[in-house]
């Protein structure tokens, strides 16, 4: 009996000591108080199961490795950026430009050409043409790269480029492009194309790959032509051609030429080095930049490996600086309290806030959580518009018809805090005007306060319950 008591006492001490250590780790590493409280509660109220969940999903194992990677990059690799840096041309956005100079460490670059490409019907031919004309290098990153007729078309183009002697690298997400089995990766490997899966492992102690995803969509050809935006690679993005059984998905991508393309290359190179350990450098991947237009642009990335949420801070600062009009288009809109407050305050001071979201996205639970956030915004004067099908996956923002922010990031906590995202600022009235016209063309139904108040109690309870999942959607 005494021995049993001693074992029980020792086990109890171990239990308390272990959970005190985990609690201390949570307190020291979690900046979000709600997340910290939730994890502490889970660990103490669900012994061992909560601990296991925290070890798998709660610890950021990426931060330390990614910071070390940045330290290993030599100054010579980014020296060319200084040649193209310049002062902000837009006076009302000058504070944002200065903030991003400090926040990102990348300059605003002039001399770029930007072409907006809506849907795969327009974007894929341009991307395939660029791949077909490649002479030195191709860098391709996609969250979703499907093994369908479109995916196979890209594989054939990449294989042909490799046979011409072009250096080809393809990076796909470890979940978005197939978790247990990635058919597209197997196809690429059969064609001897260098490829890798970002944050992928079947081992449970390396589970953060489930919660941290590379959501970027980047294509760079010969270091001079780049593509970025929200478009994945898959047949569902073809609206005017057969798609199989998948629902159609509209989207927006951007073709770029000019110095800013090398900032896209740098984003890919860092992700590739983190995933494979291979460092890509030299003129093959970073040729001397050449001016191609007049648009000032800058890449802004974010991810859990960074100390600040750069994309989120960019959006918040742009809202603060807006003088007359802010317009968003996003497939998933679940703002946290800070984001919602800034939107509401801007509307109250007279800035017109337009938010265009799909009437129905491809994730119903996300729609329910979104609906629970809308009443406060509409009450403050924000205009919320529901877009009819097809489901539009574009991620766009404009301010005062002169500044645009585009890329892969959705307006939800997953994109702004957990995913690895890539956006771009564009200081150009022509581009902003085109995007505003595009977004205005999708203002099919305005959601009024009376309509929100008419939702039944079961619907409001469902939406509020789904909103509790905000950190994970």
UniProtKB/TrEMBL annotation:
Keyword Repeat on entry: yes
Membrane spanning residue stretches: 7-27, 39-60
Keywords: Cell membrane, Lipid biosynthesis, Lipid metabolism, Membrane, Phospholipid biosynthesis, Phospholipid metabolism, Repeat, Secreted, Transferase, Transmembrane, Transmembrane helix
Any one Pfam family match given in the protein's UniProt record, by short name: PLDc_N
DNA-binding as UniProt keyword: no
Protein EC: 2.7.8.-
Membrane topology according to the record: Multi-pass membrane protein
Protein name: Cardiolipin synthase
Functional note: Could be a virulence factor.
Gene (UniProt): cls
Subcellular location per the Swiss-Prot or TrEMBL entry: Cell membrane; Secreted
SMART domains for this protein: PLDc
Domain (PLD phosphodiesterase): residue spans on this chain: 210-237, 388-415
């Amino acid at each position: 009996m005494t021995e049993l008591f001693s074992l029980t006492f020792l086990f109890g001490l171990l239990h308390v000591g272990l959970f005190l250590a985990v609690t201390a780790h949570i307190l020291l590493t979690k900046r979000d108080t709600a997340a910290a409280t939730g994890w502490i509660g889970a660990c103490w109220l669900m012994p061992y199961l909560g601990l296991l969940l925290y070890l798998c999903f709660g610890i950021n194992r990426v931060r330390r490795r990614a910071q070390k990677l940045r330290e290993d990059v030599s100054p010579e690799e980014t020296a060319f950026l200084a040649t193209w840096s310049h002062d902000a041309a837009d006076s009302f956005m000058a504070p944002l430009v200065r903030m991003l100079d400090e926040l990102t460490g990348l300059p605003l670059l002039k001399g770029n050409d930007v072409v907006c490409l809506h849907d795969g019907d327009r974007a894929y031919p341009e991307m395939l043409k660029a791949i077909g004309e490649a002479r030195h290098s191709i860098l391709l990153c996609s969250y979703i790269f499907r093994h369908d007729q479109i995916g196979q078309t890209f594989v054939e183009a990449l294989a042909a480029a490799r046979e011409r002697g072009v250096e080809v690298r393809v990076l796909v997400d470890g979940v978005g492009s197939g978790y247990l089995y990635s058919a597209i990766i197997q196809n690429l490997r059969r064609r001897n194309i260098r490829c890798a899966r970002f944050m992928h492992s079947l081992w449970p102690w390396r589970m953060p790959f489930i919660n941290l995803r590379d959501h970027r969509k980047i294509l760079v050809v010969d270091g001079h032509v780049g593509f970025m935006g929200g478009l994945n690679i898959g047949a569902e993005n073809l609206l005017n051609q057969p798609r199989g059984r998948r629902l159609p998905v509209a989207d927006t991508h951007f073709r770029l030429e000019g110095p800013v393309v090398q900032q896209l290359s740098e984003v890919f190179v860092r992700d590739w080095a983190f995933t494979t350990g291979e460092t890509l450098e030299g003129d093959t991947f970073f040729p001397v930049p050449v001016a191609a237009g007049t648009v000032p642009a800058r890449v802004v990335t974010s991810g859990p490996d960074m100390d600040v949420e750069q994309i989120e801070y960019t959006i918040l600062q742009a809202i603060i600086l807006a003088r007359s009009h802010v317009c968003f288009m996003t497939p998933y809109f679940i703002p946290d309290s800070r984001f919602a407050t800034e939107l509401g305050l801007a509307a109250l001071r007279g800035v017109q806030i337009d938010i265009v979201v799909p009437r129905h996205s491809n994730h119903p639970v996300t729609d329910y959580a979104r609906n629970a956030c809308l009443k406060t915004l509409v009450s403050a004067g924000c205009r919320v518009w529901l877009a009819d099908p097809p489901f539009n996956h574009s991620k766009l923002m404009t301010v005062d018809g002169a500044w645009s922010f585009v890329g892969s990031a959705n307006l939800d906590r997953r994109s702004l805090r957990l995913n690895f995202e890539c956006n771009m600022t564009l200081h150009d009235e022509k581009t902003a005007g085109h995007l505003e016209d595009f977004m205005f063309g999708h203002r099919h139904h305005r959601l009024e306060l009376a309509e929100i108040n008419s939702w039944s109690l079961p619907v409001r309870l469902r939406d509020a319950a789904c909103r509790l999942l905000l950190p994970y959607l």
